[in-house]
Design a protein that fits this description.
With 260 residues, the chain is an alpha/beta fold. The protein has eight helices and nine strands. The protein has a domain at 7-138 and 209-244: Ribokinase (UDP-N-acetylmuramoyl-L-alanine:D-glutamate ligase, 3-Layer(aba) Sandwich). Strands 3-2-1-4-5-6-7-8-9 form a nine-stranded mixed β-sheet, with helices on both faces. It is globular, with a radius of gyration of 17 Å. The two termini are 29 Å apart.
């Protein structure tokens, strides 16, 4: 018998195409040496062309999955992704707030293809209930703008967006500037320390699942006892490699790769 690896729980949506969501999360966790577990919040019919359909699970089913995992197996870190509705956001925020483990909150809003993964009516619950329960929140620029009204057009504005997200109460925020021109620059801050993370841009359009992969990699590192800045730096390196290795699949945008 070998010792159990650290356990990490993803609370997110299923991507039938295997590129993002729960599937990306579990692949990342396997690649990074932790035991991945899942609470499925919604099921999407999805492929490289977009999301063809989405169905959220009842709150009761989400709660029951969470309790089954946490009460018996236990978790060293939790990651949240697609939460679909205000009811699910509220329920999940309550669950993670009551769990003694770091929580990485990826405030997923819209897919790269423009499909809504979070109802507009859920934004208030994200601001007032989910973000305050986060150890690290990982919005991209669109998500930060939707949550705070601060629209970032250049690297110099990243601190302003970060401060606006931090005002809702997460301990740390990682603002992902990957959609700006030039290098992929992210800012991690807790309001005191600032860590700028920079990676060369890979000219690869097969980036489906990038956000899920990054947040899961942070959770995996936190579960292994790294500090938040260490976990985020490691995760950025992992996702940069995964983007470089992303491959074409189907007729649209292919996934990042976990086997590089
Ligand atoms: N589908 C699900 C279930 C997701 O959770 C996410 C992102 O979090 C996406 C799709 C979107 O992935 P991308 O924007 O990388 O295409």
């Amino acid at each position: 018998m070998t010792a159990a690896p650290p356990r990490v729980l993803t609370v997110a949506g299923s991507d039938s195409g295997g590129g993002a969501g729960i599937q990306a999360d579990l692949k990342t966790m396997l690649a990074l040496g932790v035991h991945g577990m899942s609470v499925i919040t919604a099921v999407t019919a999805q492929n490289s062309l977009g999301v063809q359909g989405a169905w959220e699970l009842p709150v009761e089913a989400v709660r029951a999955q969470y309790r089954s995992v946490v009460d018996d197996i236990g978790v060293q870190a939790v990651k949240t992704g697609m939460l679909a509705s205000a009811e699910l956001v509220e329920a999940v925020a309550g669950l993670i707030a009551g769990t003694d483990a770091p929580a990485v909150v990826d405030p997923v809003g819209v897919s790269k293809h423009g499909d809504a993964l979070l109802a507009a009516s859920a934004l208030d619950a994200v601001r007032t209930e989910l973000l305050p329960a986060a150890t690290v929140a990982t919005p991209n620029l669109d998500e930060a703008a939707r949550l705070t009204g601060v629209r970032v057009l250049s690297e110099e504005q990243l601190p302003e967006a970060a401060a606006a997200v931090l005002a809702y109460g997460p301990k740390w925020v990682l603002i992902k500037g990957g959609h700006l021109d030039g290098d992929a620059v992210d800012l991690l801050t807790d309001g005191t320390e600032e860590h700028w993370l920079r990676a060369p841009r890979h000219d690869n359009r097969h980036t489906h699942g990038t956000g899920c992969t990054l947040a899961s990699a942070i959770a995996a590192r936190l579960a292994k006892g790294r500090t938040v800045p260490e976990a985020v730096a490691d995760a950025k390196e992992y996702v940069t490699g995964a983007i470089a290795a992303g491959f074409a699949l189907g007729g649209g945008i292919g996934p990042v790769d976990h086997g590089w």
